[in-house]
């Protein structure tokens, strides 16, 4: 079948597949591609659409992908099905919503055994917000513990029409063809007029080092073709279109894209910031009067410091971040300096997963050895002078006396659990300064519990704790709900009487003493003994809340030294001297780089 | 002129802390090893004028394990190859359980005039921890026998910081040794290579870990006591009655020349340091093939020689003479290291003007000092 065949607009279907993680979204996509011979046997790798190694490893989709499928339906007509595969994690909600905005309908995939889970709800809501027609697809019916009846019931409870629910096994292929028929039958063709001024939504982009940004787009109105001058409506950036095409899933140039089509545009865009997700492309000469709705500037939610362990790698880190940002406009970073660690970057991420992905890519693709300092949030600090500062680095905080109040970002956390674990969820949320808001039985075996929590409390292993205390049954989704005042203080760490800015942190007052004790104890174990006693203190303002002492070194001697190994001894001494030179000086105290690394390292395993 | 060191890498059994180049169970190799030693000596001396040897030291392992015949063979070759003064210090190392009167008389007769006995500890509870195969009784007895056999220059090796050792135990050991009135006492802190049995036991928490602070305390205690009993603390770990310093070892600390024969032995001549193949049978094979068994060699730059001279010389109580050093190396040593010396003096680790030496505090923290000069 010739993929270049042009079908009438009413034979186009733009749809997406949304699901909770591991419910089978990608497998279903694979089956559909296979069934329609979009990808041949040889090209078929497990979950073809997941391009990046990382994605494949973790079994998640990070970037949106689009594929044009040609399908001859039972009625004999040919249809173009544009399948848009969306990122599957709550960190990338905005990207998901834009991908969905490019569609008219979606398959809501639910695991027949697991039933509705947190992301099912979240993604369904996004789809509904974007006015998509939802087709519930209950997957994995081949498994022994599948309970499609219950799953269907749970979907219904979400307010979704279950009349057209399909039961499938993406793994075996059972009923997948029926799904395609349902897509044709139920999902509306794109509305939109090829004669109107161009309006094309950017729902993702990829950076090609030779050609610049490859913009993934859904043309809503008008036509776009090579030679045309297009304008990005949010940034007013203008450039000339070099190439347009479709995904088969490989990029294939075409003469033009018109209203209803999904494809890509290459327009000599050298900087990805000029092709923002959610923005509208229009004709530079014959512009649309209004952009498409739904465009938002990305806002990072989580911050952490990234430092090269070897200071000499700073430039390489910067280059690597520049390159990553090309394909990840949500990644923000600014240079930062730390007394203890030297030069590095304060990076902003959409969430913890995003941060982990970036970290791993830096380490793997760019061979950088990095220290990630504990993630933090942006605090809103109001000074007594009424001046308000948004600060994410504790060492930037004004002195205690000047602070009127400190506010921190809060989230609304929705936890879905079986009733057996209600107690554990409450316990964990209370531990994390949570305020109980609501509890609702979604079904007999499923309770939804809502708490308001400070974002900072979930940054470190909240999810892991939740999973382990509920034996894996709990699922979590969260939403940012703005700032609230908390009784927060800045905890300083002093070594030999000197404040070490890199070690300062912000804690809630009630936990400050304990945290201070923890910190000094850890430091005492890490800082090597000097020729003199070294006091280590934790302080809030000028008040010392905890103290430990590193005793003075009494012995550093080689007892036996004969002709046997003078060379070896000399080399050992040379190494001792070299090691000293690499130490950071905090006053007169020699602290090895490793100490800061050990101390500041993401404390994932600690708790 | 140089010192002569001969390594005998054989023992009946390995002690649990030992990381020296020594092996148990190789008795069938002893004779061949001695032949190799002879060949190595031959290889060194051939074609040269007989060199003057200022001291001879048989170390190991347990050198006495060779037995009288083999030892005599080695010594005979030494006398044949080198110019050996009548007053030349000739030391042999040994262990209490390896000694009896006959053996001791034999050693004395063949020419050894200095004996070094490894006591380690006289605390019966600690000897098995170390894996020593003698009792405190035997140790004391071996000393008396040595005296009877005619040895007038005896060294006792002691160890402190043994897991389970406290100051009372140390005090008792020291006093019992002092009662014997040895001419020379060496005290060593127990340090463990991770491959040793004791280290493994500590990792498994069967033994308490080594306590650096306690070791410091025990060292200071011994230092004081030995001083009170008339021993000169002439080197970091070595104490001697006046005139009984170990000539051979002083040579090392004065960065003199020495020839090392045998498996893993080290040599130093001017700006060259080299060492032999370590494993005994490999050593023998090399000697048979090449006549020599050099495995590693290093040619030292002037700065390295200076550094070595400094950190070796500072081990001696007399310290180093900055002016002489400057002349010896034709370098402005006092200016080169002015800042370092000032800094170390201000930390209370060094003292003296032209004659620089470690302070008592500096002795225990000598690595802090030495590392600044390399």
- Helix count of chain A equals 14
Largest beta-sheet characterization of chain B: 9 strands, mixed
Number of helices of chain B: 16
Largest interface: A-B, 24 and 44 residues
Number of strands of chain B: 17
Descriptive overview:
With 607 residues, chain A is α+β, with helices and mostly antiparallel strands. Helix content of chain A is 25%, strand content 33%. Chain A has 14 helices and 33 strands. In chain A, helix 12 runs antiparallel to helix 14. By secondary structure, chain B is an alpha/beta fold. Helices cover 42% and strands 23% of the residues of chain B. In chain B, the strands form 4 sheets. A 9-stranded mixed sheet of chain B has the order 9-10-8-7-6-5-4-1-11, sandwiched between helices. Chain B has a 3-stranded antiparallel sheet with strand order 12-13-14, with no helix packed on it. Chain B has a 3-stranded antiparallel sheet with strand order 15-17-16. In chain B, strand 5 (83-94), helix 3 and strand 6 form a beta-alpha-beta unit. The mean pLDDT of chain B is 94. The A-B interface holds A 531, 551, 553-567, 569-570, 573-574, 576-577, 580 and B 3, 5, 187-189, 191, 212-213, 215-217, 219, 236-237, 249, 251-253, 258, 260, 266-268, 273, 275, 296, 298, 304, 307-308, 311-312, 315, 347, 363-368, 370-372, 374.
Q: Which key terms come to mind for this protein?
A:
heterodimer, A: 607 residues, six-stranded mixed β-sheet, 14 helices, 33 strands, 25% helix, B: 374 residues, alpha/beta, nine-stranded mixed β-sheet, 23% strand
Compact overview of the structure:
The complex is a heterodimer of chains A (about 600) and B (about 375). Chain A is built from 14 helices and 33 strands.
């Amino acid at each position: 079948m010739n993929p270049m065949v042009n079908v009438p607009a009413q034979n186009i279907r733009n749809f997406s597949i949304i699901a909770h993680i591991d419910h089978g979204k990608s497998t279903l996509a694979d089956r559909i591609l296979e069934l329609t011979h979009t990808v041949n046997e040889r090209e078929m790798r497990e979950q073809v659409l997941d391009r990046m190694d990382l994605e494949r490893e973790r079994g998640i989709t990070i970037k949106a992908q689009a594929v044009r499928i040609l399908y001859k339906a039972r009625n004999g007509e040919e249809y173009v099905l544009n399948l848009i595969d969306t990122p599957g994690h709550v960190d990338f909600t905005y990207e998901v919503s834009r991908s969905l905005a490019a569609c008219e309908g979606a398959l809501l995939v639910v695991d027949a055994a697991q039933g509705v889970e947190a992301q099912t709800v979240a993604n369904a809501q996004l789809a509904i917000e974007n006015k998509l027609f939802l087709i519930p697809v209950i997957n994995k019916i081949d498994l022994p513990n599948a309970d499609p009846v219950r799953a269907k019931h749970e979907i219904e409870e979400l307010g979704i029409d279950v009349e057209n629910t399909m039961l499938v096994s993406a793994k075996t292929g059972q009923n997948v063809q029926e799904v395609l028929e349902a897509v044709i039958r139920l999902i509306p063709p794109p509305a939109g007029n090829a004669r109107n001024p161009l309006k094309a939504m950017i729902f993702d982009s990829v950076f090609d080092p030779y050609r610049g940004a490859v913009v993934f787009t859904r043309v809503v109105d008008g036509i776009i073709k090579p030679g045309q001058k297009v304008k990005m409506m949010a940034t007013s950036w203008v450039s000339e279109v070099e190439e347009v095409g479709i995904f088969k899933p490989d990029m294939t140039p075409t003469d033009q894209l018109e209203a209803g089509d999904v494809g890509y545009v290459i327009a000599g865009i050298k900087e990805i910031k000029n092709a923002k997700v959610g923005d509208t492309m229009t004709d530079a000469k014959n512009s649309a009067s209004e952009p498409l709705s739904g465009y938002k500037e990305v806002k990072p939610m989580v911050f952490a410091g990234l430092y090269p362990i070897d200071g000499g790698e700073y430039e390489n880190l910067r280059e690597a971040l520049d390159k990553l940002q090309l394909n990840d406009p949500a990644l923000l970073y600014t240079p930062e300096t730390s007394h203890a660690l030297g030069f590095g970057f304060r990076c902003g991420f959409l969430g913890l997963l995003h941060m982990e992905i970036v970290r791993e890519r830096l380490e793997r693709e760019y061979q950088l050895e990095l220290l990630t300092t504990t993630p933090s949030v942006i605090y809103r600090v109001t000074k007594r002078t009424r001046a308000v500062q948004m600060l994410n680095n504790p060492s930037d905080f004004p002195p205690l006396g000047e602070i009127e109040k400190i506010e921190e970002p809060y989230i609304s956390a929705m936890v879905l659990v079986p009733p057996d674990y209600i107690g554990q969820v409450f316990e964990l949320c209370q531990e994390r300064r949570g305020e109980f808001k609501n509890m609702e039985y979604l079904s007999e075996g499923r309770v939804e519990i809502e708490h308001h929590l400070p974002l900072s409390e979930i940054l470190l292993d909240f999810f892991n704790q939740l999973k382990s205390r509920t034996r894996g049954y709990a699922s979590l989704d969260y939403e940012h709900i703005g700032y609230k005042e908390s009784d927060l203080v800045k905890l300083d760490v002093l070594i030999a009487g000197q404040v070490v800015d890199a070690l300062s942190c912000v804690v809630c007052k009630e936990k400050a003493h304990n945290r201070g004790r923890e910190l000094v104890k850890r430091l005492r174990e890490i800082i090597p003994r000097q020729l003199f006693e070294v006091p280590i203190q934790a302080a809030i303002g000028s008040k010392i809340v905890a103290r430990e002492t590193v005793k003075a070194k009494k012995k550093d001697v080689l007892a036996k030294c004969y002709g046997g190994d003078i060379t070896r001894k000399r080399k050992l001494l040379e190494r001792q001297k070299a090691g000293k030179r690499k130490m950071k000086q905090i006053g007169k105290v020699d602290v090895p780089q490793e100490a800061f690394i050990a101390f500041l390292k993401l404390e994932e395993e600690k708790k | 002129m140089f010192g002569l060191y001969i390594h005998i890498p054989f023992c009946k059994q390995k002690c649990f802390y030992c990381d020296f180049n020594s092996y148990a169970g190789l008795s069938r190799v002893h004779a061949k090893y001695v032949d190799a030693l002879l060949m190595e000596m031959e290889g060194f001396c051939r074609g040269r004028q007989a060199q003057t040897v200022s001291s001879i030291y048989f170390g190991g392992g347990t050198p006495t394990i060779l037995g009288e015949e083999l030892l005599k063979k080695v010594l005979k070759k030494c006398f044949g190859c080198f110019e050996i003064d009548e007053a030349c210090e000739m030391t042999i190392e040994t262990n209490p359980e390896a000694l009896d009167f006959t053996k001791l008389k034999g050693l004395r007769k063949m020419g050894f005039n200095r004996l070094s006995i490894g006591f380690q500890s006289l605390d019966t509870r600690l000897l098995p921890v170390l894996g020593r195969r003698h009792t405190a009784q035997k140790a004391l007895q071996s000393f008396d026998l040595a005296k009877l056999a005619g040895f007038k220059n005896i060294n006792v090796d002691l160890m402190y910081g043994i897991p389970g050792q406290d100051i009372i135990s140390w005090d008792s050991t020291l006093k019992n040794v002092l009662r014997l009135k040895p001419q020379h006492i060496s005290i060593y802190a127990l340090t463990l290579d991770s491959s040793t049995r004791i280290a493994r036991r500590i990792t498994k928490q069967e033994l308490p870990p080594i306590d650096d602070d306690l070791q410091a305390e025990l060292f200071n205690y011994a230092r004081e006591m030995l001083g009170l009993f008339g021993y000169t603390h002439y080197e970091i770990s070595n104490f001697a009655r006046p005139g009984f310093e170990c000539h051979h070892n002083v040579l090392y600390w004065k960065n003199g020349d020495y020839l090392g024969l045998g498996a893993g032995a080290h040599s130093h001549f001017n700006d060259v340091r080299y060492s032999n193949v370590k494993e005994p049978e490999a050593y023998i094979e090399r000697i048979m093939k090449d006549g020599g068994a050099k495995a590693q060699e290093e040619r030292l730059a002037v700065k390295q020689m200076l550094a070595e001279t400094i950190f070796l010389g500072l081990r001696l109580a007399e310290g180093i003479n900055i002016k002489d050093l400057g002349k010896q190396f034709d370098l402005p040593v006092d200016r080169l290291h002015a800042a370092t010396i000032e800094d170390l003096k201000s930390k209370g680790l060094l003292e003296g003007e032209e004659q620089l030496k470690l302070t008592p505090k500096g002795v225990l923290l000598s690595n802090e000092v030495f590392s600044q000069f390399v």
